[in-house]
Amino acid sequence: MRTRFALGLVGTAAVLTGGAALAMQSSGSLSGDIKIDGSSTVYPITEAVAEEFRKLHPNVRITVGVSGTGGGFKRFAVGETDISNASRPIKKAEHDAAMNANPPVEYIEIPVAFDGLSFVVNKSNTWCDTLTVDQIKAIFLDGSTVKTWKDINPQWPSTPIKLYSPGTDSGTFDYFKEVVAGDKGSIRGDMSVSEDDNVLVRGVEGDTGALGFFGCAYYFENKDKLKVLAIDAGKGPVTPTHETVETGTYAPFSRPLFIYVNKNSASRPEVKAFVEFYIKESNRLSNDVGYVGLPQDIVRRAMKNFAAGKTGTQFLDAAGEKVSGSLDKVYK
């Protein structure tokens, strides 16, 4: 069995005071503040959960920021937030920052949905329907000489390419970089970047030569404004859909999304109830806002881990090395 990185049980008392705790909370009986920040990709899910939770508990004030996955972890590691939205697993440096804080920030890792990175172009782009992974690398890797669409395919027009990307604090960018450039490569710097995916949508919508990428929910929400490209990883073109993302057919750009919960915060009734509600309703609300729900077995694992107060990440091993693999195989 693989040894997990800083994984342990902190005891059920710190997180759950009884299986019926949430059910016993009458509407409006909870109060307090819940501070959340992090990924703009996870934001629509968390905000949808927050809106539903507020209907049950109007005295709980929930704020949800969008500083990006990296930016969210910076705040989370020093105890400024109760929950951090993340479009990738926590990194070793971020884990270490939390553990070295005074006091240390122990956390519970919870997957909430699947997402697929969508590559989109302007609606007026009639020439490109598919990109191969090799073409994506040729476009985006540092040192790329691609400046026009014709540079990718000589049959395409000489329209200049304008690239739109999430910011470098974004987990979406991190995941994209990992797939395209690997651990040691880098991405070209002459892109228009924003931590707000809605800014990227507007940029691609307004630029004939645009090519951008972001989470699939932002494409699903803006289908009337953008054109999505199929991706060919060697087995034929595949477009991002709920089915292709969940099954992993949309490779290599499918990924799980997470929330990270401060263990001390989870001992507060309002935070505990919110996270329980989040896990219970994550599939329904993820689908409502355009993401892909998790298999029920993963949802059960998440609820069990939260109830047990299982701290640390399952995506780093005992030596702090990244653990790769499907969510079903890694998250136990």
Model description:
The relative contact order is 0.22. Helices cover 35% and strands 24% of the residues. The protein has 332 residues and is an alpha/beta fold. Helix 2 (43-56) links the parallel strand 2 and strand 3 (60-64).
Task: Please specify the SSE layout and strand pairing.
Elements: E1 4-9, H1 21-24, E2 32-38, H2 43-56, E3 60-64, H3 69-77, E4 83-86, H4 92-99, E5 107-122, E6 130-132, H5 133-140, E7 162-166, H6 171-181, E8 192-194, H7 197-205, E9 210-215, H8 216-221, E10 226-228, E11 230-232, E12 237-238, H9 242-247, E13 254-262, H10 263-266, H11 269-288, H12 296-308, E14 310-317, H13 327-330
Parallel strand pairs: 2-3, 2-4, 6-11, 7-8, 7-9
Antiparallel strand pairs: 1-14, 4-13, 5-9, 5-10, 5-13, 11-12
Helix pairs in contact: 2-11, 3-4, 11-12
What's the total helix number?
A: 13
Query: Stretches where pLDDT falls below 50 for ≥5 residues?
Result: 1-26
CATH class assignment of the largest domain: Alpha Beta
What oligomeric assembly is this protein in? single chain
> Radius of gyration, Cα only, in angstroms?
20 Å
CATH hierarchy: architecture of the largest domain:
3-Layer(aba) Sandwich
What gap, in angstroms, lies between the N and C termini?
Answer: 11 Å
Main sheet specs: 9 strands, mixed
Shape: globular
- Strand percent estimate: 15-25%
Helix content: 25-40%
SSE order: EHEHEHEHEEHEHEHEHEEEHEHHHEH
Structural class: alpha/beta
